[in-house]
Design brief:
mainly alpha, single chain, 23 helices, 2 strands, disordered C terminus
Length: 507
């Protein structure tokens, strides 16, 4: 069993090394889509990047020694982003918000959630706060998003420092805050940010169990992992991948006594927790979902969507399914086009159009789109170019503020030429992270912890290849495990954390 375990994860690490190298190449070539190679600011960044190692080390030491200050600066910047924005919420998140806050009719939100039941839990979460505090709960929800964003940095830092040493924890903290802390993503009001602290706790509890030989601690952490995973999955079902990766690592390891103990104390509480939460959701009375076949998007629909050219082309997906609907019904919103039978036919049709070569090329292009952007695919445009926008109620007060105008121009609107400065800085940080991923798979030996984290990342990337993908935004839900691996790789440039990489595999 041990040989199978070692060989399986050795192959996985080779695959992930190839993916990481591709990731790094894509991250570097993405620079040309942000600005021209003659841009002076680009070359300033390049010169700074290859400048004095001593100076960079001093900057890094300052940052890691002032993590609380960095967090306060990030929070201050987030507040500025929030009060300065003109467009607050967009697209699907805007529809859910307007329905939850009774801005659009009950029929409109009923139609939307009938088609998109995956957003029902987000709707109920927002409606709960609206029922409690009215429209002012918008700011409570934004505060919760800020808390989730910043708390995740500290959860990852504390947890990874305990397991791998403070060197690794510091690197992960800086990477995370640079990518998500100094970012406006928190106010988008979708389910990208909300599950992040739960995902971080999932990873840390799983690492605790893998490292523990104490029965009481294993049981305690298993129960905590079950509860946290149940909450995370209700918010974002893909968080189940972390749990699957952890349980698969235990199964491959072949320590049946520990595996049985963990399965027992995760399985039963997890099923009860998820079942209870879904029971309450199924019996909610805040919105009436329309009953009928083919009205709701099911899991297979997102496989079909993933087969479109970019992996997320909604219009192409709809046009393909409409050919199975009678012409006179095609203009109706609830026309039954998502019928499983139609979706299966469309998947077969799309697969039939690919050759082996073109399908592999499709997957590579989809992966490139997924890992390309250091801004994590921030999509906000000028208000005139947006669909179903929710305007910021504070915008009328900050519209003419000089600092707010500057922030909108340089940080918030991808339509502004000045946005490229922010995008380039993020891209350089993204490249550093990609370097860490290459190094972690290139230089280090197998361990239970590394195997679990590798499987969690691979599972996430595989999910985005099979289902809807092709946007870097979709990587946010897998970013904690990606950053842990990158942090492990980067700290290997100086000194290996004691006791981790030399860890012996147990029989």
């Amino acid at each position: 069993m041990m040989q199978i375990y070692q060989k399986t994860f050795k192959v996985l690490q080779i695959i992930l090394l190839l993916i990481a190298v591709h990731w790094l190449v894509v991250a570097i070539t993405q620079i040309s889509t942000i600005t021209s190679w003659s841009d002076p600011f680009l070359w300033i960044l390049v010169l700074l990047s290859i400048g004095s190692v001593k100076w960079w080390k001093q900057c890094y030491v300052f940052l890691v020694n002032h993590k609380r200050l960095i967090t306060l600066v990030a929070v201050a910047l987030q507040v500025l982003f929030l009060i300065s924005s003109e467009l607050l919420i967009r697209r699907d998140a805007a529809v859910v918000f307007q329905g939850a806050f009774r801005i659009i009719s009950d029929q409109s939100i009923s139609n939307y959630l009938t088609r998109n039941p995956n957003n029902l839990s987000l709707f109920l979460y927002e409606r709960f706060f609206y029922n409690m505090f009215g429209f002012s709960s918008l700011w409570i929800l934004q505060g919760v998003n800020m808390l989730c964003t910043n708390a995740t940095a500290w959860i990852l830092y504390r947890g990874t420092s305990r397991h791998f040493g403070s060197q690794v924890g510091n690197a992960i903290f800086i990477l995370y805050v640079g990518l998500l802390g100094f970012s406006p993503y928190f106010y988008s009001m979708y389910t990208d940010i909300l599950p992040l602290p739960f995902i971080a706790l999932q990873l840390i509890f799983a690492l605790d169990i893998l490292a523990s030989h104490d029965r009481v601690q294993v049981v305690k952490k298993s129960l905590l992992l079950a509860g946290i995973s149940a909450l995370a999955i209700v918010i974002r079902p893909t968080t189940f991948i972390v749990l699957i990766a952890f349980l698969m690592t235990l199964l491959f390891k072949g320590n049946w006594k520990k595996t049985g103990l963990v399965f027992l104390h995760i399985g039963i509480p997890f099923v009860l927790a998820v079942g209870s939460l879904n029971w309450f959701i199924d019996r909610q009375e805040e919105v009436t979902l329309i009953e009928g076949q083919g009205l709701a998007k099911g899991p297979l629909l997102f496989v079909n969507l993933g087969l479109t050219s970019t992996g997320h082309d909604q219009e192409d997906m709809k046009e393909g399914l409409l050919q199975y609907i009678e012409p006179e019904k095609r203009s109706e919103y609830n026309n039954g086009m998502f019928l499983r039978e139609n979706v299966v036919k469309e998947i077969k049709r799309r697969l039939g159009q690919y050759t082996l070569f073109s399908f592999v090329n499709h997957l590579i292009e989809k992966q490139e789109l997924t890992v390309s952007e250091g801004t994590l695919g921030w999509p906000y445009r000028d208000i005139d170019n947006e669909k179903t926008p929710v305007l910021n109620p504070l915008y009328r007060y900050t519209k003419h503020w000089g600092i707010s105008s500057w922030i909108r121009k340089y940080f918030l609107s991808i339509d502004k030429s000045e946005y490229r400065y922010y995008a380039l800085v993020k891209q350089f940080l993204w490249i550093v992270m990609a370097v860490g991923l290459v190094l972690v798979f290139l230089r280090f030996k197998l361990s239970d912890s590394l195997n679990f984290l590798s499987l969690a990342v691979f599972g996430g990337l595989l999910f985005l290849l099979i289902f809807e993908g092709g946007k870097t935004r979709y990587l946010i839900q897998f970013l904690p495990q990606v950053l842990i691996l990158a942090g492990l790789g980067l700290t290997g440039l100086t000194k290996k954390p004691k006791g981790f990489w030399k860890e012996e595999l147990e029989g």
